[in-house]
Specification:
The structure is a homotetramer. The first copy, chain A, is built from 9 helices and no strands. By secondary structure, the first copy, chain A, is mainly α. The longest helix of chain A is centred in the middle third of the chain and has 25 residues, at about 65-90. The first copy, chain A, is elongated and about 60 Å long. The relative contact order of chain A is 0.11. Chains A and B meet through helix 5, helix 8 and helix 9 of A and helix 5, helix 8 and helix 9 of B. Chain A binds a DNA duplex through helix 1 and helix 3.
DNA sequence: TATGAATGAGGGTTCATTCAT
DNA sequence: TATGAATGAACCCTCATTCAT
């Protein structure tokens, strides 16, 4: 399962060879991390998969941290490029929410290892002091953007009032990322099915019609 | 923030001091993992927090893996003991679902480090070959039990038909575990608020009343 | 040429074995540094000379820096213990100055490698940022103490007035350390001869009798 | 603080650009070594300061060793050219000795980094086997020349008899080089003051008038 | 039973140098 | 001629584990 990192054009200030090599190493890193997890993905293992040496990696990336940061940045950019038009094609809140979930998981389906690796990195990468390198919580950009969307349509009356858009945004992201996470141990997992189900789920959860809760509560 | 591992009674075949020592080491492991993450929680760091040496840990636990397995097992047992009566006190599906979410997060509130550490372990612990040590997906016991509950009340008509109980169970677990995960970088996070919100969220999502989705999809 | 590190008694909080091992490793470090210089004295080389592994060194010393710091500290303590009584046995300024130089070089003669290694370390050890780890200049303790002595007898009239005690102290230390430095490439160098000559030299330089300088300046 | 390497004329067998390139690289090497020390001055760091790459350096200099040798050679030549006329302008022994010390330190004042770097190199540069690349002891040319001067005027009776010219020469060189060495950590050090003081010092030390040493020795 | 000591593999990174273009 | 790319050894250090006492 080879990852496909085809950078469109060269990055500025880099030679052609350099760009290609970086892409190749990133692909090796992605596959390694997706397969054995962030903690087990040593430079040696990555180098082996790229059929090079650790030295080469450090030559091109000045350290593991930059390599990993680059993998994440690449994915974030590509993910946004993939999802945004699909979301903006919708006009209603429910449509956009559904498009968000489904396009995200469609992107996952088409970029399995890259997404899986990124989730691994983001959840696990920490400095020597134990502090995380990537933000995933309330302050994270992805959560903030989703929260914005939810809050907008809640204010517009398309979503039921009464839920906290931040909590919901975090829950949605957690549910989506979890699918990627599960993909590691369960490669057969039906991502398309999960996409539809999760979209339904959160559309229902935000639907303005007051549900009857039974006598219980 | 010291973790409190008071094992109820002695474990079979262990002396009193042995049991106490194990509890002390487990507490140190929990606090260390909760603070710096699984990957950075070396035996040395754990030993330091326990004011012992690595040798002692390996003597009592025959390896890091067993220590970590024990931490998880302990938590699972305690978590179940805490949550089960609170869930079973309810009679309706919505009540039970709400109780599940809220008691789980209440338990988190009262056992912060232990839960946080367990989530860290379960998500990250892998063997040298990269295979996970703990199952978190469809096959995991926690997911299976929750799926059972959801399926039961769906069949009984208390929950709307049409959702896949497995997908929902996984989403719920992901959302809950995510709260624990966030707690690491974000100790001020209002767990009680998240509990109420998430309970509402999933109750709405399972409500049988058909919501109107607008024109979108 | 084996260095002799016989620590008198155990250091507090250390077992007998530990103390012995540290001494052995320090001896190996001293000999290695004295022979190949600070820059070439890798842990691997030191370990080889100690017939152990790098791991053992790091177990006992938590890093190369501490090992090296310890080597210096040990020498400073021993050097002071050796020199002080010999200096204090004198009553005149010239006597003390001569005793300073001669006892220092006598100590060098009897602790060749240790002194040589220390000079190497002090002159060369730097952090990653390029800053020196040890002070050798005006602020260094050794220079300050010597300056004190010179200033005292200058004020008392035993030394000629008109010289800057700090500059002289630095020159004396440089001349002495230089002997140690030369010893590396010239093991046959007659330290005793240098001792006498340097003592004469600085005694003359501080003598109160006004010398006639000829027409020149 | 940029070093100024203006090679007088082109070196034989080298194009103009080649010569200029070498000068630029040497200047970068000098500044780097002066700032961070010989041990920390890797080709990478030097290349960075010269805004080139390591490859370029190795192309022009066939190894680090030659680069460093060139830096030293350049300085020795310039230093001699600076000092010789100033020394030869004097006629007395004391005058020449004073001129030696003062012109050397004046040269240091005007070529700070180059001198500092050279001292760093000469004291530290060693091969993989630990053998020094540069001689600084009795056999070194600089020491030999100074010894010659001292011996000459001692024989002529201008300096007191009874001191070993070699030991004194080494002491003088050590004292002077030490000033350069201190300049690294202590850029504010008053070189002019040290020059005057050291000149006085050694003039006194060589003065023929027998000083009275007090009762002590 | 309990622990200090040792192990040796592997971690990421930097190094001076060589090579293909 | 000039340089970006690659090399692979060596750097210091940390790791989980085992062993002798």
């Amino acid at each position: 399962m080879r990852s496909n990192i085809d950078l469109i054009g060269q990055e500025p200030g880099r030679t052609f060879t350099e760009t290609a090599r970086r892409a190749q190493i990133m692909a090796a890193a992605i596959d390694t991390i997706a397969e054995v997890g962030y903690g087990q993905a040593s430079l040696a293992r990555i180098a082996e998969k790229a059929t090079t040496s650790k030295g080469v990696i450090c030559y091109h990336f000045d350290g593991k941290e930059e390599l990993v940061r680059e993998v994440v940045a690449e994915l974030v950019a590509r993910g946004a490029a993939y999802m945004r038009p699909r979301i903006e094609a919708e006009s209603t809140g429910a449509g956009m929410l559904r498009a968000y979930v489904e396009s995200n998981l469609a992107f996952l389906r088409e970029n399995r290892n890259h997404v899986v690796a990124t989730v691994e990195i983001v959840l696990n990468a920490r400095g020597a002091d134990g502090r995380r390198h990537f933000e995933t919580g309330p302050g994270a950009a992805s959560v903030a953007a989703l929260r914005e969307l939810l809050a907008h349509f809640q204010a517009a009356g398309e979503f039921r009032s009464g839920f906290d858009p931040l909590v919901l945004a975090m829950a949605i992201r957690a549910a989506i990322d979890n699918v990627a996470h599960q993909l590691v141990s369960n490669p057969e997992l039906d991502v398309r099915h999960h996409a539809r189900e999760l979209a339904d789920l959160f559309v229902h959860a935000t639907s303005p019609r007051e549900p009857s809760e039974g006598a219980g509560q």
